[in-house]
Write a structure and sequence with these properties.
With 437 residues, this protein is of the alpha/beta class. The protein contains 19 helices and 13 strands. An 8-stranded mixed beta sheet has the order 8-9-7-10-6-11-12-13, sandwiched between helices. It binds adenosine-5'-diphosphate and magnesium ion.
Length: 437
Amino acid sequence: MSVADRILEQNPAESIAAECVAFVGDNQTHSVVASVLKEYFAEPLLRDGGPNQAIEYLAGTVPPALLIVDVSEAVSPQTAMLSLTAAVPEGTKVIGIGSINDIAVYREIVDSGASDYLVKPVTEKALASALNRTEESQHSHHQPDNAAEQKARIAVIGSRGGVGASTVALNIAWILSEERKYKTALVDLDLEFGTIALSLDLEPTRGLREALENPARVDGLFIASATAKLTEHLSIMATEENLTSEVQYNPNAVDALFEALGRINDTIVVDVPRSSYAVRRRVFEAATEIVLVTELSLGGLRDSLRLLRGIREVAPDTSLRVVANRAMGPKQAMQLKDFQKALEHKVDLVLPDEPKVFNAAANTGKPLAQTNTRAKVCKALRKFIGEFHLPEQEEDPDKSKAKAKGKVKMKRGSKAAEKKSAPAKKKLGLFGLFKKG
Ligand SMILES: Nc1ncnc2c1ncn2[C@@H]1O[C@H](COP(=O)(O)OP(=O)(O)O)[C@@H](O)[C@H]1O
Ligand SMILES: [Mg+2]
């Protein structure tokens, strides 16, 4: 009797395709996988075992849409994953679970055709987020090749530190994603001193530095693993590299990053650092909208002038808007009309100084546009965004979501599944420092 016949005989019911099949080796992973899968699939099949059991199973049945396999007991997890991905048809997504926490292993496994690789101890959040990514990557493969070209790439830079560039970038991203319903990626390219993760009270994401140093590594799956999904529509890439070694930015990586992010997002908002000329230049060249944030001061004027000149050299035709932030407060040292005259550029938006609402938002680790939608700054930003050139939106977002679902069907809409679709890791502790009592 062949292996297939034997399995068919032993498991007649399972010869009808299960949507998701998982083989895991230990109790802890077993219970996490069980609890997450039941939120996503009607009848998931969960078994004890590893790659050998999975291969045996595959030999005797219709392949599932999603296969999850614990390869931690294999001599070489990479080889085990390779034989698994070779054993399934193209339509089957494979997620590996292992105990080796190493980016090189992750890369090899993903290169071998797996959708994702999770390191033990696997948490419910990590697994839910891997399932969402797998669904998303399936969606991205159905998009036309030039899809990335049509996406809005909004570059935000400050004339100097503290003028509010990150604040503007964050709130633009929030309004685009949560109010306008664009799938949005917010990328903090300041790997060392960026404040996006901090202001969202988020655990910094991993992988951005590697992406910016090795453009060849940037692909859809790598991007997905390096972003934190803050909400259904907003993902964040923000890191806090240690300050003891030079980041070797490779400017080509910016294009690769935009390309890959554009495949799964409608808009990309970039918080651009002033530190690396090569990166700045590449971002401006690729941007569809450039926003220069400044304060109305002499220093702000000098640095706005210098940046404007630099931007015009590399992106002469791109729409460039100047935002005067924290006006009408102690930060305003110059009159608006004097500033505009000296800059020889109009100030497109004046944002008032609103320290109270901003401090309150900062204490909650949320964007102002979320905590105080009626703040003057938010109202002004909403109008400002209305002038951006943004991709056309599909008529019915629910319909398009259904279309994009593809083969790995996730049970959405159930409260538990919704909760699990926002797996961005909140950083514990730090924000407690600012909280009163
Ligand atoms: N319009 C505003 N009114 C009051 N405070 C603001 C305003 N815009 C930004 N801030 C605050 O200024 C500080 C610096 O902002 P940030 O966005 O980090 O600046 P940058 O990125 O330009 O260095 C933050 O604490 C932020 O909350
Ligand atoms: Mg900043």
